[in-house]
C-alpha cells in the first residue's frame, strides 16, 4: 500500500523536525539582568552564570549615547584599546546580538573609561546538536518590554512547526 509508505515517510519527517526544534531552541539573555548594560556591574560574573549556544540572543539595554557595544578581538578586549580589532559596533540602546557562530565573542563598551571600569565580558557560543551534551537550562532574566516579545515569538514559531507536522501527518493518514 502506497499509503503506508507515505505514513512512514511523514513519521520520519516528524521525528527530524522535532529533533531540529529541540536543538534550535534559542534563548534570549538580557545582558546584566536587571542592571542592564551600565557601569557598576560585573559582566564577567554575569556571563559565567550561563552556558551559551549558537542561536542565542544577547540583548543590551542602555540609554542610547551613554553606552555602546563593540564586538572585539580577544587582544583588543583585553587591552580595552579600540583603535584596532573592532569586529562590530552596536549603539541603538536596545541591541540584539545573535550568536551566529560557534566561537568566542568579546564585548566591551567603548565609551572612554567604561571598558576599563568593567563594561566588558566574553562568551563562548557552543554548537548544539551532534553528540550534543545538553546544557543546563538557563534562567533568562525577564525585563519589561521587548524581551518578553522575543520569547513569545520563539515559542509561537515552534508551535507553528508542530501544527504543520500534525496537519501533514493527518493528510498522509488520509491518503
Ligand atoms: C591604542 O593602540 C594604538 C595602536 O595600537 C596606540 O597608538 C594608542 O596609543 C593606544 N592607546 C592607548 C590609550 O593606549
Ligand atoms: Cu559604557
TrEMBL record:
Residues 134-143 have a biased composition (Pro residues). It comes from Kingdonia uniflora. One of its GO terms (molecular function) is electron transfer activity. PANTHER family: BLUE COPPER PROTEIN, OS09G0541100 PROTEIN. It comes from the Eukaryota. One of its GO terms (cellular component) is plasma membrane. Gene3D superfamilies: Cupredoxins - blue copper proteins. It holds the Pfam family Cu_bind_like. Residues 27-127 form the Phytocyanin domain. Residues 127-152 are annotated as: Disordered. CDD domains: Phytocyanin (cd04216). InterPro entries: BlueCu_1_BS, Cupredoxin, Phytocyanin-like, Phytocyanin_dom. Residues 1-26 form the signal peptide. This is Phytocyanin domain-containing protein. Keywords: Copper, Glycoprotein, Metal-binding, Signal. The keyword Glycoprotein applies.
Amino acid at each position: 500500500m502506497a499509503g503506508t509508505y507515505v505514513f512512514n515517510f511523514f513519521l520520519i519527517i516528524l521525528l527530524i523536525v522535532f529533533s531540529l526544534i529541540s536543538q534550535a531552541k534559542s534563548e534570549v539573555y538580557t545582558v546584566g539582568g536587571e542592571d542592564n548594560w551600565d557601569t557598576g556591574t560585573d559582566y564577567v560574573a554575569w556571563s559565567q552564570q550561563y552556558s551559551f549556544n549558537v542561536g542565542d540572543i544577547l540583548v543590551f539595554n542602555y540609554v542610547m549615547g551613554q553606552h555602546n557595544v563593540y564586538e572585539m578581538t580577544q587582544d583588543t578586549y583585553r587591552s580595552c584599546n579600540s583603535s584596532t580589532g573592532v569586529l562590530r559596533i552596536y549603539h541603538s540602546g536596545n541591541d540584539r546580538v545573535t550568536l551566529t557562530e560557534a566561537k568566542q565573542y568579546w564585548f566591551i563598551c567603548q565609551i572612554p573609561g567604561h571598558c576599563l571600569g568593567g563594561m566588558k565580558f566574553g562568551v563562548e557560543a557552543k554548537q548544539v546538536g551532534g553528540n550534543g551534551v545538553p546544557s543546563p537550562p538557563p534562567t533568562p532574566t525577564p525585563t519589561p518590554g521587548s524581551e518578553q516579545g522575543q520569547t513569545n515569538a520563539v515559542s509561537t514559531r515552534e508551535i507553528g512547526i508542530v501544527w504543520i507536522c500534525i496537519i501533514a501527518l493527518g493528510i498522509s493518514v488520509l491518503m
